[in-house]
Amino acid sequence: MIRRFTRVPLVRHLLLALVGLAAVVVVLESTSPFRNAQLANVAYLGIAAGGLTVLTGLNGQLSLGHGAFMAIGAYTTALLLQDADPALPLVGVLAVATVVALVCGVVVGVPAARLHGPYIAGATLALAIAIPSTALFFDDLGGEQGLNVLVPDLPTWILDAAYFVTGNEMDRTRSIAYIGWVCLIVTYVLLANLQRSRVGRTWRAVRDDDVAAEIAGIHLGRARVLAFVVSAGCAGLAGSVMAMAVRITAPSGFTLNLSLLLLSAVVLGGLGSLAGALIGSALLTFLPQVVTDVGVDAGLTDVQAAQLSPLVYGLVTMAVILLAPAGLVGSLRGLLQRRRLASAGN
């Protein structure tokens, strides 16, 4: 009976979400505020990388501009959270930031649906450069200094419920980490169901052979625009969480480097894999800190140790591409599948 229920994708994904939520509670309650801040960083990078892996791995569109959609979500959040008593609750702010990014995704995705390969990469690259720079020309967006984000306290009933469950008082950093991880879990459940649905199969068909997909009656443009819009919405939500976690939104936070790091996280974890996107985001967050600590312990100065981390990250990326071309999760799945087939053959 239990196996029959778990065969239903929605039920299986909801059960995994509950297990993941329990693990998040345990980890956040047992770690320091510094680790809570790092885990919030993992959460918003994971949301953006999850959307990007759906676009690139499942639909075959290469985007180098997802940092721009994160900027749109972050600036929307910053504008809505300029007052200590905002007009919208935090859930409403997250929803509005996501919807604004979705609309911008439609505006960009419709013309981008006509492009392929390096052309769409070039178009989104221009977007990643242009959008953050636009903020410099509008005083309402704070110019180069950016906008401060005033995150209001959570409602009392939520704080009371959290204390009842965990037995600990919830500080501001931990509450932002919870917001980020709840958003990530909800996003991943929706994306996982989308992958297993007719829409996901349509995206894979377009990725594998667009001519055959069109002959089969699939509207290529509609499928590509929908994938782009979903991915942009994820990036907007990630930008909103990032604005709350960092508490400032400025153009320097959304450089081309951010878009490239998101893409590298997707490649490291494995294209099309949500678990891979999360693992890649965790590497982006924790690997520089680990390398810096090792460098300082080895006798380097703080500056030298900090400069060492991009080199190590690049070497790790090259090693993964050479030794595990399908990414960490993709290669692990392939290995397990080969072992299963070998044991079945024996």
Structure commentary:
Keywords: Cell membrane, Membrane, Transmembrane, Transmembrane helix. Its main location: membrane. By secondary structure, the chain is mainly alpha-helical. 77% of the residues lie in helices and 1% in strands. It has 15 helices and 2 strands. It has a two-stranded antiparallel ribbon.
Q: Which features would summarize this protein structure in a list?
A:
346 residues, mainly alpha, 2 strands, 1% strand, transmembrane, membrane, branched-chain amino acid transmembrane transporter activity, transmembrane helix, Branched-chain amino acid ABC transporter permease
Class of secondary structure makeup:
mainly alpha
Overall shape: it is: globular
Number of helices: 15
Tell me the strand order in the biggest sheet: 1-2
Helix fraction, binned, reads over 70%
Task: List the secondary-structure elements in sequence, H or E.
Answer: HHHHHHEHHHHHEHHHH
Largest sheet at a glance? 2 strands, antiparallel
Task: Compute the CA-based radius of gyration.
Answer: 21 Å
Strand content is under 5%
| Total strand segments | 2
Distance between the termini: 30 Å
Spans of at least 5 consecutive residues whose pLDDT stays below 50 are none
